[in-house]
Amino acid sequence: MKSMKLTATALALLLLVLDHAMAQGGLKKNLATTKPAKPAQCCDEVRSLKVQVANLSSMLEEMNKKQESDLMKVVRQMMELEKHNQQHEARVTEAESKYSEIYNQLEIMQLQAAQSAPQQSTSDAIYDCASLYSRSYKISGEYKLPKDDFLGTPELNVYCDMENNGGGWTVIQRRKIGLTSFDRDWKQYKNGFGTIRGDFWLGNEHIFRLTRQPTVLRIELEDWEGKTRYAEYGFFTVSNEMNSYKLFIANYSGNAGDSLRYHNNTNFSTNNKDNDKCVDNCAQLRHGGYWYNCCTDSNLNGVFYRYGSHTKNPDGISWYGWHGQHYSLKRVEMKIRPQSFVP
Ligand SMILES: *[C@@H]1O[C@H](CO)[C@@H](O)[C@H](O)[C@H]1NC(C)=O
Ligand SMILES: *[C@@H]1O[C@H](CO)[C@@H](O)[C@H](O)[C@H]1NC(C)=O
Ligand SMILES: *[C@@H]1O[C@H](CO)[C@@H](O)[C@H](O)[C@H]1NC(C)=O
Ligand SMILES: *[C@@H]1O[C@H](CO)[C@@H](O)[C@H](O)[C@H]1NC(C)=O
Ligand SMILES: [Ca+2]
Fold first, then answer.
1. Where are the alpha helices (DSSP H) in 280-335?
2. Helix residue ranges per DSSP H, 35-166
3. What are phi and psi of 247, to 5 degrees?
């Protein structure tokens, strides 16, 4: 664009010079009436300038054509990329549904076993994956926790990790597919959303109930290079809704950094409920629901950015203690287990 403008200016200048030369030619002509001279010289100059103008005009035209074709090339490349992206998403969705099918059969068997098991006393109650584990359900997958009148808990579908780090883990959050939006309101964060084998938030109300007994939180992270890190908190609980699901954590260990500490003792915020400690609206800025302070040292419910765009935004799925604020992770899992659990 710039070079085109320059050329246009040059062309204008040249035309000015041409004008000037013509004027001078005219003057010379006037003089010629009194004093005979060589009119051929002036006309040669004008002719050569005219040729140069024609030359410049054609160069300008050529440049315009080239720029147009460059632009078309970029547009075509962008369309190609977009198509590629869509194909990728379709493959991910397809893979997810295949995965679900495979596990469906196994899951039904697990559910039947869990539900036909007799419940004698409260200590035998199935209220999380740890209690299923101690009843010898040691295969990871989706389970249905029965309604418990004594504990006042409703029926709940959960994903149990029965294999990693001793098993008995109830998964409360997962990010791995990236098609489910986590920019949701208070009510959705309260009751939970997403698919239990894919990306989901279990729900603040359920997390509150599950963490009434002393609970351990384990956070597993994976980056786009396939490396993994973890952060574990020996103590984790959230308050009830009246107290805005306020977060308490303690006793960090791990290799990812203590990036939830900054969020300790803060209320939960969503895009329609600003409970953060900031003049800004952190949930709206970071596009998620979380225990926002002012605003983040981690943003595990942020926006899922795919490889290529994962380092460009401040509202991604970040854990500052590992990759800083501008790196959106590829995979996250948050899971809980009673402190008293013995593998
Ligand atoms: C314009 O002039 C340059 C050099 O003076 C020459 O190489 C080129 O071929 C000319 N272009 C046209 C279209 O006449
Ligand atoms: C943290 O760990 C210490 C040492 O194991 C323990 O005494 C303390 O009770 C733990 N804190 C919480 C809040 O669980
Ligand atoms: C958290 O929420 C409670 C009520 O839900 C409120 O009393 C308290 O001041 C809030 N704390 C902060 C730090 O905003
Ligand atoms: C969180 O705050 C509590 C006090 O409310 C404190 O005991 C605990 O150590 C803090 N946790 C971390 C990880 O700093
Ligand atoms: Ca605010």
1. 282-286, 320-323
2. 39-116, 129-133
3. -95, 135
165: left (phi over 0), alpha (psi -120 to 50) or beta: left
Selection from 102, 106, 151, 108 nearest residue 131 by Cα: 151
Closest residue to atom 14 of ligand 2, CA basis: 235
Q: What is the pLDDT of residue 133?
A: 93
Strand partners, 216: 337
CA distances from 213 to 126, 192, 237 (A): 14, 21, 8
* Segment 125-150, tens digit of pLDDT: 778 999 999 988 999 999 999 887 76
pLDDT of residue 113: 59
Global confidence as pTM: 0.68
List, as ranges, residues with CB under 5 A of the ion ligand 5. Answer: 274, 276, 278
Q: Is 263 exposed, middle or buried (0-12, 13-18, 19+ CB in 10 A)?
A: buried
CA dist 74 and 90 (Å) reads 25
pLDDT for the residue numbered 49:
85
Which residue minimizes the CA distance to atom 10 of ligand 3?
Answer: 267
Probe ligand 1: pick from 7, 11, 55, max atoms within 8 Å of CB?
A: 55
Torsions phi, psi for 237 (to 5 deg): -155, 155
Stretches in the chain below the pLDDT threshold 70: 1-41, 97-124, 150-151
